[in-house]
Inverse folding.
């Protein structure tokens, strides 16, 4: 049995650019913005980095292939830079690379940086991609909202939920994230909305309206990791360590075998179970202080509450409407606004989630600081409900 | 001896009310006022001559000599007749054959170039089956004709297809004689590469063409079979020109009541397919044993074929056929949608329509032809799990056996909706884009596009069937990709 990652790696510094429609900035400027903040927080300079992991998804409309865009933008000291891509979970993948490098002892200090420059396409939403020469010839037409909206039909059928009740819970999720995002000066969307606004928004993909969809944003996020010992030597206080880091990928069974009912994320359940085990968490609903989940769409957040074992199966709607996940609730979720309002620059999002958990654990979250959080969790998902990459990461105060 | 032993047809679900066409053009031509009667079939954006041919062939084979998954296995030829085939150089009949799992050692032919191509194909097949080199052949006529806005064709045409199974023996209709009269009479033409027909004056076509050439062929076939014109019970002669069929019947002595319904009120004229569509329609109603059926079609000459109904024709097996498809129609007065589907208006489609990833890897198309065209997946011989696509390693998490799958087509399998959405964001010519996961009754599933679906019609559990459709078109290179989509089961179809 593997011994796991718990407490082997510490976060030395983090940085995050302002997210949003950054018309004035390209990916290079966004990378530098996040990197400079991370360096400052870590109290090191670039020459102390041993290796870097770089995540970005849409290379075609962004920076191109390989690790060179990061190495060049940051003028890194000719160290190894590995570009990783794992759909919207790419940021978590970059973090995993850097964390594993430090845990192995091969590196003392490593950088993970994710960036996405999306607002150079001329239209809203994400560009389509067909995924290869064969898929292009048969895979169903689709957009991200349409793929994730499928969850709603299956969830309603499985739990006997009316469309109105579901829509109300989804609206609450978005209203909550807008309220949280309003307190975050780096967030893309900073205006609170009402339930009525959410419910009456234009339809994007049945039953998801405009406010059920996250922002399409430009941004970058960075994380510098090292060992807890080195962090201490460098004078780091309130050291935050990695407790668990798990990834689970679909193998085609949801898409091709009749054992999956379409209402949940098979991979998230597996990654969460393994992550709790790795972190030594027995009762997630009692032990997790706060989390950032992959709320690309409101319905994704709803079913993920159950997949993360925080709400009972079929119980997420009640928990959501009861305010269990609100900023003043039992387990605050998307306290920084989430993908919904902080924004979703794809390659950066996994690291952005960690940024908020890290700020909260470091008691540096400003007006949205929670009271004494101990364990923060991120859930970063890429792909579609029937075929995806689920990453679950848990961080907390060093023991 | 050769005969027609099975028949089938396909008519697209959408019907455009002619009143909508007439209303749109009255401002420029007041004569449209009186032309708004009835409706015509129009193809959905993802249908063309090939997709309709596949569906008509399936309708025919489902009730043919060997229904079931092996339908058509004993065919030795497939004739595809049309003047609107999507490929000028790539055999269209080969696509239809592959979609039906009928590729391999069979003759496949595209027969085209004139409005009588449907009857020419039928005659060729009957003559081949009468000889020693062929035993059973499928003849499919199909057309989706483009007509300019405000043209006579826009009102008169209908999109559709029909298929006839021809084999040795007397069948439902026994072939008695056939004649072809060739005459380079250019009533209309369409130059290679041109989108639209150029048509000469109707009175000249009727008086100098049809009235002269058709009787020659009809009289010749009657003489060949030794049959009197007055003995003909059913006369099939498609023409969009008013009273052309009546005129021919009268001039050769065929009784007026023998004229078969040309379906102009409900379907429109399906080009090369129309004689076969009318014949299928006639057969569906059942024929008196011994009834004489004369089929003729005009186009740079005339084909004339004479048949006699057998006992079996009295109670034909039920196919969906022309009648079934007509009953499933959805009437629309959305003329603008018709224009959009047929590229007759320049619409702003938005940047999402500007995809540049439509170039098709032809090597993949060939390697995966059974998957893409025949909807062939796999069945694991170890655990029995049906799956799509077929892969080297079984998808069943409890199995995972390597190299155990044998081919299994999902083409005719019943399925139902597991998940769905109606997507207003994705570009599609007929928004919203409906897609979702379907599960097959006997196992297997995949995420599919839905087509011919109304907003609000889908729900979890809705029964669907698979249909062959255009997946996407590469306008830059002139290539069309085909795949299968799910369509809700409706009415007598269910």
């Amino acid at each position: 049995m593997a011994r796991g990652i718990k407490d082997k790696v510490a976060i030395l510094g983090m940085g995050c650019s302002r997210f949003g429609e950054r018309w004035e900035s390209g990916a290079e400027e966004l990378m530098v913005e996040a990197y400079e903040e991370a360096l400052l927080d870590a109290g090191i300079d670039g020459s102390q980095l041993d290796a870097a992991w770089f995540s970005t998804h849409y290379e075609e409309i962004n920076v191109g292939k390989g690790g060179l865009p990061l190495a060049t933008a940051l003028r890194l000291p000719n160290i190894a830079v590995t570009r990783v891509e794992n759909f919207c979970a790419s940021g978590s993948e970059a973090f995993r690379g850097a964390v594993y490098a430090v845990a192995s002892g091969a590196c003392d200090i490593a950088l993970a940086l994710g960036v996405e420059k999306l607002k150079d396409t001329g239209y809203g939403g994400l560009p389509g991609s067909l995924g290869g020469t064969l898929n292009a010839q048969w895979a169903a037409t689709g957009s991200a909202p349409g793929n994730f909206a499928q969850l709603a039909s299956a969830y309603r059928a499985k739990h006997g939920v009316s469309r109105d009740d579901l829509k109300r819970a989804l609206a609450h999720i978005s209203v909550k994230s807008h309220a949280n995002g309003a307190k975050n000066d780096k967030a893309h969307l900073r205006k609170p909305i009402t339930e009525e606004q959410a419910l009456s928004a234009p339809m994007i993909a049945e039953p998801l309206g405009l406010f059920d969809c996250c922002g399409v944003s430009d941004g970058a996020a960075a994380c510098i990791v090292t060992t807890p010992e080195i962090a201490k030597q460098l004078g780091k206080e309130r050291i935050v360590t990695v407790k668990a880091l798990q990834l689970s990928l679909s193998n085609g069974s949801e898409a091709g075998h009749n054992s999956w009912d379409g209402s949940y994320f098979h991979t998230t359940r597996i990654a969460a179970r393994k992550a709790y085990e790795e972190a030594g968490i027995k009762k997630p609903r009692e032990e997790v202080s706060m989390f950032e989940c992959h709320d690309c769409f409101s319905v994704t957040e709803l079913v993920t509450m159950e997949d993360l074992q925080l709400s009972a199966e079929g119980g997420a709607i009640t928990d959501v409407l009861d305010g269990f996940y609100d900023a003043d609730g039992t387990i605050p979720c998307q306290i920084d606004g989430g993908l919904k309002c902080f924004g979703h620059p794809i390659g950066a999002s996994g690291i952005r989630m960690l940024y908020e958990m890290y700020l909260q654990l470091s008691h540096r979250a400003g007006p949205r600081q929670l009271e004494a959080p101990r364990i923060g969790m991120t859930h970063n998902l890429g792909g579609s409900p029937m075929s995806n990459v689920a990453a679950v990461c848990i961080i907390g105060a060093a023991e | 001896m050769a005969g027609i032993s099975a028949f089938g047809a396909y008519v697209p679900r959408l019907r455009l009310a002619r009143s909508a066409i007439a209303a749109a053009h009255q401002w420029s031509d007041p004569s449209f006022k009186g032309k708004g009667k009835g409706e015509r079939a129009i193809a959905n954006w993802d249908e063309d001559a090939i997709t309709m041919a596949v569906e008509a062939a399936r309708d025919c084979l489902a009730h043919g000599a060997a229904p079931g998954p092996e339908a058509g296995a004993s065919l030795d030829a497939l004739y595809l007749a049309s003047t609107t085939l999507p490929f000028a150089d790539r055999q269209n009949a080969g696509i239809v054959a592959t979609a039906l799992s009928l590729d391999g050692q069979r003759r496949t032919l595209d027969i085209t170039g004139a409005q009588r191509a449907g009857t020419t194909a039928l005659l060729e097949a009957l003559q081949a089956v009468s000889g020693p080199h062929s035993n059973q052949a499928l003849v499919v006529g199909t057309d989706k004709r483009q007509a300019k806005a405000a043209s006579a064709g826009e009102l008169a045409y209908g999109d559709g297809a029909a298929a006839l199974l021809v084999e040795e023996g007397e069948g439902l209709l026994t072939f008695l004689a056939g004649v072809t009269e060739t005459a380079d009479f250019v009533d209309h033409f369409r130059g290679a590469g041109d989108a639209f027909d150029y048509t000469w004056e109707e009175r000249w076509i009727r008086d100098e063409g049809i009235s002269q050439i058709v009787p020659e062929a009809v009289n010749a076939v009657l003489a060949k079979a030794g049959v009197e014109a007055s003995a003909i019970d059913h006369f099939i002669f498609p023409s969009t020109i008013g009273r052309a069929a009546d005129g021919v019947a009268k001039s050769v002595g065929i009784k007026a009541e023998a004229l078969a319904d040309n379906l102009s009120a409900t379907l429109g004229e399906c080009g090369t397919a129309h004689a076969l569509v009318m014949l299928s329609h006639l057969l569906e109603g059942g024929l008196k044993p011994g009834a004489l059926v004369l089929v003729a079609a005009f186009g740079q000459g005339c084909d004339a074929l004479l048949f006699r109904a057998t006992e079996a024709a009295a109670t034909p097996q039920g196919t969906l056929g022309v009648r079934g498809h007509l009953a499933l129609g959805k009437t629309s007065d959305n003329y603008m949608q018709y224009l959009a589907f047929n590229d007759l208006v320049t619409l702003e489609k938005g940047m999402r329509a500007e995809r540049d990833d439509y170039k098709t890897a032809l090597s993949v198309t060939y390697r995966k032809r059974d998957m893409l065209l025949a909807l062939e997946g796999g069945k694991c011989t170890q655990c029995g799990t049906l799956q799509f696509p077929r892969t080297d390693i079984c998808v069943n998490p409890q199995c995972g056996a390597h190299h155990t799958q044998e081919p299994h087509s999902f083409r005719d399998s019943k399925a139902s909706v597991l998940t769905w959405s109606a997507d207003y964001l994705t570009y599609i010519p007929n928004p919203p884009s409906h897609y979702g996961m379907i599960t097959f009754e006997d196992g297997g599933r995949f995420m599919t596009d839905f087509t011919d679906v109304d907003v609000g019609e889908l729900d979890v559990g809705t029964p669907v069937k698979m249909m062959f459709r255009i997946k996407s078109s590469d306008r830059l290179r002139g290539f069309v990709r085909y795949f299968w989509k799910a369509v809700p089961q409706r009415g007598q179809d269910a």
